[in-house]
Amino acid sequence: MGDGGGEVSIVALRFALLAALLGPFAPLAVLVTGRRGRCSRDRRRDGVELRRPGTGTWPASGYYRAMHDHDHDDDPAPHPADAPDRPMGLSGSGGGKWYLSFHGGEGRHAWNNLHAFSAAGEPLGKVLAVDALPDGTALRELRGFAFGPDGDLYVANAYKGSSQILRFGGMPDGHGRHPFRAVFSEHHRANPGLTHPFHVAFGPDGHLYVPSQDTDVVGRYHGPAATEGEPGTPMPIPPALAAWPAGTFHPGTFVPSARHVAGGLEAVRHALFGPDRRLYVADRAAGAVNAYDPETGHRLRSYGGHPLRTPVHLLAWPERGLLLVGDRDSGTVVALDPVSGEVATRVAAKAGGLETPAGLAWGPDGLLYVADRTGRRVLCFDPETGLAAGPPLLEGLPDAPEFLT
To answer: What is the 3-state secondary structure (H, E, C) of the chain?
Structure first.
């Protein structure tokens, strides 16, 4: 998830230059370049009004109806004719287009692909091309995703029967789809720790770190540029775990489970590297966020206490030196100060209609965007005040949103 906060001054400068050159046409130019990113506009698509809060939810437009019937990996879905040809993702690929993953599954309304939306919240179609997927590989229950150090897009395919990290080309094709490249890593006899992956994170060392929900470990895998081991394969255990007998941990374990050692993870969820290069891991069952040394794997500190109850999602706020934590049971977004250890509510329960916070992301407008799993919408907030910054960016989604960037 990109922090996005540093883009605000750049956006302002670009707008000033555009205003000087284009006069009254500057706002249109900003919209075309995808930099407006506001969640307070009236929107229409295909003649169907996408309503403001308080006036009902989005009707099932032709696009949504088509997606209900076609979001399966073996059935190509319609792609809006006006979708841009090149990526403009809000973190790492240029600004202006949102990528979202959804709960997915086998239901008729399950969305088992990443979907793109414009900065104004208009649907742009599915993101991942499936025509080259190998036999036996299907997109099901996608979770976290990230652009790697090589520029490619890595996606957690979390279906329990086929736990995989899939690699797609970083540049979409002419239809806005990222081409499939390879199964980067997957669950098998020699890699049993990768089971039901929740997210993917690349460390300062260029290697891949994956929290797996069913084994409650954070696994470390050789990155795409690795030379000391085959990319995607489990790495040796870190020094913090060297004292235990061989075979104690799953291959590739970087942060262990409580099933293996005291003080291990009880129910792992999000893992990310902060601006301080430390690895932060949300432990939902323990009600804590833990910090680990990125080189040795030693746990440096554990953060918890009210209002943290069941932390799930994390987002770095470098400009304030904070971490934001989406807490499931309290329905809040919590600000965590890694230096002082202080935790405090930043976005209160029910603020802007928030029910169950999931993915967190920064917009190019400097606002905080929060996926609401229960409400099936994406809300936006002023990160300083914690108050809603306008109507939802998206609402009335047919499936529960998980991660966004």
So the answer is: CCCCCCHHHHHHHHHHHHHHHHHHHHHHHHHHCCCCCCCCCCEEECCEEECCCCCCCCCCCHHHHHHHHHCECCECCCCCCCCCCCCCECCCCCCCEEEEEECCCCCCCCCCCCEEEECCCCEEEECECCCCCCCCCCCCCEEEEEECCCCCEEEEECCHHHCEEEEECCCCCCCCCECEEEEEEECECCECCCCCECCCEECCCCCEEEEECCCCEEEEECCCCCCCCCCCCECCCCHHHCCCCCCCCCCCEEECECCCCCCCECCEEEEEECCCCCEEEEECCCCEEEEECCCCCCEEEEEECCCCCCEEEEEEEHHHCEEEEEECCCCEEEEECCCCCCEEEEECCCHHHCCCEEEEEECCCCCEEEEECCCCEEEEECCCCCCECCCCCECCCCCCEEEEC
What is the distance between the alpha carbons of residues 145 and 151, in angstroms, rounded to a whole number? 12
- pLDDT bin (cut points 50, 70, 90) of residue 159 is confident
Query: pLDDT tens digits for 259-294?
Result: 999 999 999 999 999 999 999 999 999 999 999 999
- Rounded Cα distance, 334 and 133, in Å: 39
Q: What is the pTM of this model?
A: 0.81
65's tokens:
């109806």
What burial class does residue 318 get, using C-beta atoms within 10 Å of its C-beta: 0-12 exposed, 13-18 middle, 19+ buried?
Answer: middle
Residues in the chain: 405
Contact 210, 164 (CB under 8 A): no
Q: How many C-beta atoms surround the C-beta of residue 394 within 10 A?
A: 25
- Whose structure tokens read 């746990």? 299
User: The tokens 């917009």 sit on which residue?
Assistant: 363
